[in-house]
Design brief:
The complex is a heterodimer of chains A (about 400) and B (about 160).
Chain A: E1 15-17, E2 23-27, E3 39-45, E4 48-55, H1 63-67, H2 72-80, H3 87-102, H4 108-136, H5 140-161, E5 170-171, E6 174-175, H6 183-206, H7 209-215, H8 223-228, H9 233-237, H10 245-248, H11 269-293, H12 315-320, H13 322-333, E7 341-349, E8 352-360, E9 368-372, H14 374-380, H15 382-386, H16 391-401, H17 405-409
Antiparallel strand pairs in A: 1-2, 2-3, 3-4, 5-6, 7-8, 8-9
Helix pairs in contact in A: 2-3, 3-4, 4-5, 4-11, 4-16, 5-6, 6-11, 11-16
Chain B: H1 8-21, E1 25-31, E2 34-39, H2 44-53, E3 58-66, E4 74-82, E5 87-95, E6 101-102, H3 111-122, E7 126-127
Parallel strand pairs in B: 2-5, 6-7
Antiparallel strand pairs in B: 1-2, 3-4, 4-5
Classes of the chains: A alpha+beta (about 400), B alpha/beta (about 160).
Chain lengths: ~400, ~160
């Protein structure tokens, strides 16, 4: 029988008894409420959790190592695959980090489009969280409604980038392509529709006694503990840590937007739910503001920087300009080489702080790409939250943390 | 860009460090609007504690970089944020292969997994860590993949070759 990473043997049966008579049980790696491949080793006294240990790494694909052998443009595509529920937030963090390494600025319109897409992405990600946590807590209809609404947002992403999920649309230097004609109108319609739907979700959940019973007064996290455990994002804000990188360290064009950062001080599962719901409303608010600021696509409207060392020239220029042809060739064979140095760029992803620490040695490939992901720190918190609670509450708490194992394991 | 600013208060940390750590403070650098402070490994935890008390209450990240040809070989860094002044800074130390670093877990419990990851992928030891074992890779794995001398195709004889 092969020993697992944690030393507990992988037997065919998943339930065992340890020397003190407690039941040791594997929750996961294949368990619906672990939302991916998280293995939670629970030591139970009856239904009470005595000890717990998360076992991660099942989705480790060596993304940081892979990035070291890719050029800067190629490494962008691996960032999609970390937090697969929020690829655009990862693209944004990566692109901003590389732009700061290069020392370039992107046109204002690009920053506004990035804000719009990042906020739509936040809503889409929160929709998955809301649907699956509703499903876990017994409100099954939430799953069906939320995934339907999420699909309308993914359709928008598909329209601009060609794919629903692994977009790679936000790139160092700007965007992959300009918005489609009619994209802004479609987005406006989706935003209006979602505004109505969020009221409906409130109605579906707030009047559901099972949901209220299962989320209120469980899984408390104090603000001191949130700081101590390096927690960021909605989980920290639900515990009274008033810290949102969009407001406190504005990147892209967030400084031009007027929005609130929802916080709660209770720190239970219900507070985390309310914070995310209010965050979605604020995201819709930001989207509405962004839609007013973004000029429709057309000739002469920038969608990326015109620095030919970073982004390729338009196709028609290659037909008559030797320099353009050379730039095109150099970019796609060699890429660009930022000056040596290192930067840390953090963005507020749907789950918290997504930080890209990029080290350049002056070559065309990142010397090191380190990604600080919010799921990694948030999964670490699980044993602290579920200590001494009942097994049924573990499911609700796991759902309220909203982790993505791809983001956690990289 | 508003994210790239270093205040005079942060610059003053340099003199504070000189005062506190003398020759164990290796210097500071400003690059692209970010401040980096270097200390010797012996002053690592004290320096982090000093910064924590100076308002840098959030440990954003703890990681390492392998400079294979350099002596000492690794940079170990902590990225700290101040929720009060909304600023970031980097604290770095330099260690050689087999040279341990003090764990930051007494200051932030959350440093636990960051340090386990650095041990797993770089093979850097942390003293006083409550349970330094592999985290992303299986327990019976040999080697530390993020080291620069570890081949991208995996170890020799690997099925991925």
């Amino acid at each position: 029988m092969a020993a697992s990473k944690t030393g507990i043997p992988n037997t065919a049966a998943t339930v065992e008894t340890d020397e003190s008579g407690y039941t040791v049980m594997n929750m996961g790696p294949q368990h619906p409420s672990t939302h991916g491949v998280l293995r939670l080793i629970l030591t139970l006294d009856g239904e009470r959790v005595v000890r717990s240990e998360p076992d991660i790494g099942y989705l480790h694909t060596g993304i940081e190592k892979t990035a070291e052998v890719k050029t800067y443009q190629q490494a962008l595509t691996v960032t999609d695959r970390m937090d697969y529920l929020a690829p655009l937030s990862n693209n944004l963090g990566y692109s901003l980090a590389v732009e700061r390494l290069l020392g370039i600025e992107v046109p204002e319109r690009v920053s506004h489009i990035r804000v719009l897409l990042a906020e739509l992405q936040r809503i889409a990600s929160h929709m998955v969280w809301l649907g699956t946590s509703g499903l876990d807590a017994g409100a099954m209809s939430m799953f069906l409604y939320c995934f339907q609404e999420r699909e309308t947002i993914l359709d928008l992403f598909e329209e601009v980038s060609g794919v629903r999920m692994m977009t790679s649309y936000i790139q160092p230097g700007g965007l992959m392509a300009d918005l489609n004609p009619g994209f802004l109108e479609k987005t406006e319609a989706v935003v209006e529709e979602l505004t109505k739907k969020i009221d409906m979700y409130y109605g579906l959940l707030e009047k559901n006694p099972i949901w209220m019973e299962r989320t209120k007064n469980i899984g408390y996290l104090t603000p001191e503990d949130a700081r101590h455990w390096c927690i960021t994002g909605p989980v920290a804000r639900a515990s009274g840590v008033d810290w949102d990188l969009r407001r406190d360290r504005p990147y892209a064009a967030y400084a031009d937007y007027d929005f609130e950062v929802p916080t709660r001080t209770v720190g239970d599962c219900y507070a985390r739910y309310i914070v995310r719901m209010e965050e979605m409303e604020q995201s819709l608010n930001i989207c509405r503001q962004a839609l007013k600021k973004i000029a429709p696509p057309g000739v002469g409207v920038p969608y990326r920087t015109d620095d030919r060392k970073i982004v390729p020239p338009p196709k028609y220029e290659i037909q008559y300009s030797m320099e353009s042809l050379i730039h095109h060739f150099k970019l796609f064979t060699e890429g660009f080489s930022p000056p040596p140095g290192d930067v840390y760029q953090a963005v507020e992803g749907p789950r918290g702080e997504v930080g890209f620490h990029m080290v350049s040695d002056g070559s065309n490939k990142p010397y090191r790409m380190r990604v600080r992901t919010p799921s990694f720190t948030n999964v670490q918190l699980i044993p602290h939250l579920i200590q001494d609670l009942l097994l049924a509450d573990v499911v609700a708490i796991l759902a309220s943390i909203d982790f993505v194992l791809g983001d956690c394991d990289r | 860009m508003s994210t790239a600013t270093i205040s005079d208060e942060m610059r003053a940390l340099s003199s504070k460090f000189t005062e506190a750590f003398a020759e164990n403070f290796l210097g500071s650098r400003e690059d692209r609007g970010e401040l980096t402070l270097w200390v010797m490994p012996s002053a690592w935890r004290e320096a982090a504690k000093l910064l924590m008390e100076a308002g840098f209450n959030h440990l954003s990240d703890l990681t390492a970089v392998d400079y294979l040809d350099r002596e000492p070989r690794f940079d170990v860094m902590a990225i700290l944020a101040s929720h009060k002044t909304c600023t970031y800074l980097r604290l770095k130390t330099v260690v050689d292969d087999q040279q341990p670093v003090d764990s930051l877990t007494p200051l932030w419990v959350g440093a636990n997994w960051f340090e386990r990851e650095v041990w797993d992928l770089f093979g850097i030891h942390f003293t006083d860590h409550p349970g330094l074992k592999r985290i992303l890779l299986p327990a019976d794995y040999t080697g530390h993949p993020l080291r620069k001398d570890y081949p991208i195709t995996g170890p020799a004889g690997s099925v991925f070759r």
